[in-house]
Design brief:
The protein is mainly α and 71 residues long. The chain contains three helices and no strands. It has helices at residues 11-23, 33-48, 62-70. The chain is flat and about 45 Å long.
Length: 71
């Protein structure tokens, strides 16, 4: 983390929340707070973490990266 007031301080977190909002939250009407919590949890565990391509491992998904590393 960089110093206080640096514009790059929260870049990774801001990118994550922007993707979460644009891919799920803005497209969905939730009946209850609990429905929103469950949908966000499923989105993170089912799509964002294992499937979505990330720039750090060469624009591959974590699952693909682990398969390549294991071979």
């Amino acid at each position: 983390m960089s110093g206080k007031g640096n514009c790059y301080d929260n870049a990774m977190v801001e990118t994550f929340f922007k993707a979460l909002r644009s891919e799920l939250v803005w497209r969905t009407m939730f009946e209850t707070h609990q429905d929103a919590e469950q949908a966000i949890g499923r989105h993170i565990d089912g799509l964002y973490s294992p499937v979505r391509r990330h720039s750090a491992p060469g624009f591959t998904s974590p699952v693909q990266f682990e398969k390549m590393a294991a071979s």
